[in-house]
Design a protein that fits this description.
Layout (H helix, E strand, L loop, with lengths): L5 H29 L2 H16 L5 H12 L5 H26 L7 H6 L3 H18 L1 H25 L3 H23 L10 H9 L2 H24 L3 H13 L10 H10 L4 H22 L1 H8 L7 H26 L11 H6 L1 H29 L4 H31 L5 H25 L6 H26 L1 H14 L2
């Protein structure tokens, strides 16, 4: 057993994710302020396209976490094998990029250059999976290395050397390399075992289990390609990428539950979900309020031309909130599944298990979403709607198709874990968020002056952010006993 400490690892993970919020915003500022709208759209397109060829990684990484959390020594075998997969993925990406570059007006050389990030990502993801089953907080340390390396590299390559998209790609590649090196050092005990073909045989036999869930992810990522092909431009995609840069702040609240999956694999004790879910809500509710409240100034900070996408941020923050809760339920439901512990488990056994059922639900959801996007955006394109209108309807489709499936995931979790949600505590969180961020919104409308220079605007904007965060933490500390206990546990964990 790995002895995973859920509270400690969860708090470390969340703390690092808060750092990544800051570094992510800084990096996005560098990119949005230095790149044209078309280049920024291409940046978003690269993110979507590289996702397609990462589908092979989970064939290995999926099992690494489950096996290592249960005490097996498959780390070295998985690390080497996944690295070989990365080489093959590069070749596939180059073919896709070559074909796609002829369909959309985009710099094909930049698309091809982005291939350098793929093999690094394969190595990094295998090490992250090892850490998740071994010591989840180590995974957080790796993320911290990535984030802290990314900023100086971004300033050097994108801002000072003015290397544009090439500089952005190099920044990500080098920062990912720094994370990979740190994870190798921290997980070296798991990389010492011999290369074992027994694991390869198992992974080959069950490759469809981890690959199947990723089909739905790739379907989800097709929305970016669909939008580009239907509109024929990248300007609307730039609005979408900028809005998501703000709304995805909400997803960081899910970091508090990262260790939950490994702990359930290790112990199978279902009680861990209840506390983790409440903590996730405690942090996600104010992050949703922040995304909504700071939508306009946040987009203005990225680049004044994206300010009109404020409504998109508001809608997508709700979508990200629901997706974050889905992720918690997904991890919990698959974490208690034990079919893979049976040496004589048949294909039929796996089909009946949560390892297959949960991804099937996701596949139905994301297929519904993609079909809706294709149909509605095609109709809107004929009617000559503006780019921002197209993006707003795109966000509304995402929300409309997300709500029913999120409700279903909650029902599944309630059935399997007998959840008893503390509604009073959640109402207190909502009350604090509405009061504090409602006040902050009023103050910004009255006193915040929008100046195009970020060096003048940010110092004026940050006090409003501090008021929001400090006010929420202060009020919830006063009115909710569980939060006082949480604060004390944070101090206790940090002093160990």
């Amino acid at each position: 057993m790995s002895g995973i400490r859920v509270t400690y690892s969860g708090l470390i993970s969340f703390a690092v994710s808060l750092v990544s919020v800051f570094t992510g915003i800084v990096f996005t500022l560098i990119v949005t302020r230095q790149l044209s709208q078309e280049e920024f759209g291409t940046w978003g397109l690269i993110g979507g396209m590289t996702g397609y060829v990462l589908i092979f990684g989970p064939i290995i990484t999926y099992w690494l976490t489950r096996e290592i959390a249960r005490g097996e020594k498959s780390g070295k075998t998985g690390f080497i094998t996944n690295g070989l997969f990365g080489i093959g993925a590069v070749l596939i990406y180059l073919i896709i990029a070559s074909l796609f570059g002829t369909q959309v007006e985009v710099d094909q050389a930049v698309l091809l250059f982005a291939a350098i990030t793929i093999p690094i990502e394969y190595l990094r993801s295998s090490l992250q999976s090892i850490a998740l089953g071994y010591k989840p907080h180590v995974r957080s340390y790796g993320l911290l290395a990535f984030e802290l390396t990314k900023i100086p590299l971004g300033f050097a390559l994108i801002y000072f050397l003015d290397m544009g998209l090439i500089g952005a790609i190099l920044t990500v590649a080098l920062a990912s390399s720094a994370e990979t090196i740190l994870l190798i050092v921290k997980t070296r005990d798991q990389l010492k075992a011999k290369f074992n073909t027994v694991y390869l045989k198992k992974w080959s036999k069950l490759f469809w289990i981890p690959t199947y869930p990723k089909i739905s992810n790739r379907i989800m990522n097709l929305d970016v390609v669909v939008f580009s092909i239907i509109t024929g431009t990248l300007s609307g995609l730039a609005f979408w990428t900028a809005a998501n840069a703000i709304s995805k702040i909400v997803a960081h609240s899910g970091q508090i539950s990262i260790p939950l999956y490994g702990k359930l694999l290790e112990s199978g004790k279902k009680a861990y979900l209840q506390d983790n879910l409440l903590r996730t809500l405690y942090f996600s509710i104010p992050l949703v309020a922040m995304a909504m409240t700071y939508a306009k100034p946040g987009l203005f900070t990225l680049n004044p031309i994206y300010e009109i996408a404020s409504v998109v941020v508001i809608i997508m923050s709700l979508v990200v909130f629901l997706r974050t809760l889905d992720g918690v339920f997904d991890s919990a439901l698959t974490g208690i599944e034990k079919v893979d512990l049976k040496d004589d488990a048949t294909f039929k056994d796996y089909i009946k298990s949560k390892l297959f059922y949960i991804p099937t639900v996701r596949l139905i959801h994301r297929s519904t979403y993609l079909v809706s996007v294709i149909v509605l955006l095609s109709i809107l394109a004929i009617s000559s709607f503006s780019d921002i209108d197209m993006v707003t309807y795109w966000a509304l489709i995402a929300l409309a198709t997300q709500i029913p499936f999120s409700l279903y995931f909650y029902i599944l979790a309630k059935r399997n874990f007998d959840l008893q949600i503390d509604k009073i505590a959640i109402l207190k969180y909502l009350f604090a968020a509405i009061v504090v961020f409602g006040l902050v919104y009023y103050l910004m409308e009255e006193f915040l002056i929008y100046k195009e220079s970020i060096f003048e605007f940010i110092p004026n904007f940050l006090p409003f952010v501090a008021i929001g965060i400090g006010g929420y933490l202060g009020i919830t500390y006063l009115i909710e006993p569980k939060i006082r206990i949480l604060f004390k546990s944070v101090i206790k964990e940090l002093t160990k």
